[in-house]
């Protein structure tokens, strides 16, 4: 397929406009082998939580593409809209062009002003990671009933409350309500899909956008990838949905005011991809 015009070059994917053929005007989402992480003694350590590309993992792009296509098709079957149109190669899919949930800086004459480029939405079945670090009064792995939080995407992600989203004008009240409902619906579908394979989703992160063609409807865009899901094996909910094996699983620490939390039963992307894409 013709290369098309580059719209955006990201850390793990590139976006092109399709210039000819049946999908002219739509976008092509190309999944790359580039992986984020950090350097340790001159060697790359891959870590999806990081924001710097440190090297390549051959085949990573194709796996992410298959994984995303699997979930976008599942959403389609369940009547949940997304930007997905078709898969056209090992590592590329055709998608509906969308506008990220962004906002121009309102007063650029003020030094330090910056536009809002994009929003991300996290959702959580259980308390761990940055949620527990922020709210350490909560029992690790407590059931959070898919609590949704919004983050402004930038050099570092900053939590933005739902009221602030409305007050700033970034999203309307109706859009926020619809967006949260959508994230929870998708989270439930993804969680069920994993549970049928004996795996439990701890939490995840989605991107939403307004469809360019049509009525600007808000849908899930970007990817549902192994990189944006935290998965564990051996989840054992009690009657409240709180994981009952947290004492064996969660390990927390505090040193110089910095908290850490690890989950011993968490499985790596490499492990759950095998179970998924066999
Ligand atoms: N349907 C879509 N329309 C427009 N942009 C999209 C769509 N889906 C994903 N994107 C954007 O494409 C980019 C994908 O590249 P990625 O490597 O994830 O970028 P980043 O490094 O910014 O996370 C993201 O910025 C995402 O917002
Ligand atoms: Mg991204």
Q: Which CATH class is shown?
A: Alpha Beta
Helicity level: 10-25%
| CATH architectural category | 2-Layer Sandwich
- Give the H and E element order: EEEEEEHEEEEHEEHHEEEHEEEH
Radius of gyration: 19 Å
Q: Report the sheet-strand fraction.
A: 35-45%
Distance between the termini: 28 Å
Bound molecules: adenosine-5'-diphosphate, magnesium ion
* Class based on secondary structure composition and strand pairing: alpha+beta
- CATH topology annotation: D-amino Acid Aminotransferase, Chain A, domain 1
The CATH H-level superfamily is ATP-grasp fold, B domain
Main beta-sheet strand count, sense and barrel state: 8 strands, antiparallel
Query: Domains counted in the coordinates: how many?
Result: 1
Poorly predicted runs: none
Our count of helices gives 6
Detailed description of the structure:
The protein is α+β, with helices and mostly antiparallel strands. The protein has one domain: 2-Layer Sandwich (D-amino Acid Aminotransferase, Chain A, domain 1). Helices cover 24% and strands 35% of the residues. It contains six helices and 18 strands. The chain has helices at 60-77, 129-134, 162-168, 173-195, 246-249, 269-276, and strands at residues 5-9, 13-17, 27-31, 34-40, 43-46, 53-56, 84-89, 92-95, 98-100, 119-126, 143-152, 158-160, 200-211, 218-221, 229-232, 250-255, 258-263, 266-267. The strands form four sheets. Strands 9, 10, 11, 12, 13, 14, 15 and 18 form an eight-stranded antiparallel β-sheet that branches. A five-stranded antiparallel β-sheet has the order 1-2-3-8-7. The longest helix has 23 residues, at 173-195. It is globular, with a radius of gyration of 19 Å. The relative contact order is 0.14. The site of magnesium ion has 3 residues, from loops.
């Amino acid at each position: 397929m013709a290369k098309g015009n580059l719209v955006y070059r990201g850390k793990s994917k590139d976006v092109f406009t399709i210039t000819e053929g049946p999908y002219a005007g739509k976008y092509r989402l190309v999944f790359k082998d580039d992986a984020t992480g950090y350097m340790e003694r001159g060697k790359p350590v891959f870590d999806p939580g990081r924001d710097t590309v440190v090297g390549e993992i051959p085949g990573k792009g194709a796996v992410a593409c298959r994984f995303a296509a699997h979930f976008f098709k599942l959403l389609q079957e369940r009547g949940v809209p997304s930007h997905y149109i078709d898969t056209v190669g090992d590592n590329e899919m055709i998608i509906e062009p969308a506008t990220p949930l962004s906002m121009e800086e309102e007063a650029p004459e003020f030094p330090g002003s910056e536009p809002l480029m994009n929003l991300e939405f996290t959702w959580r079945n259980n308390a761990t990671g940055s949620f527990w670090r922020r709210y350490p009064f909560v029992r690790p792995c407590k059931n959070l009933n898919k609590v949704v939080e919004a983050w402004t995407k930038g050099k570092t992600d900053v939590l933005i409350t739902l009221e602030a989203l409305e007050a700033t004008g970034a999203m309307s009240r109706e859009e926020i309500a619809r967006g949260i409902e959508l994230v929870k619906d998708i989270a439930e579908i993804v969680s069920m899909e994993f549970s049928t394979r004996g795996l439990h989703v701890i939490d995840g992160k989605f991107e939403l956008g307004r469809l360019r063609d049509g009525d600007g409807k808000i849908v899930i865009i970007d990817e549902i990838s192994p990189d944006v899901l935290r998965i564990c094996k051996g989840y054992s909910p009690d009657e409240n949905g709180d994981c009952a094996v947290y004492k064996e699983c969660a390990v927390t620490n505090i040193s110089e005011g910095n908290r850490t939390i690890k989950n011993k039963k968490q499985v790596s992307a490499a492990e759950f991809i095998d179970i998924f894409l066999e």
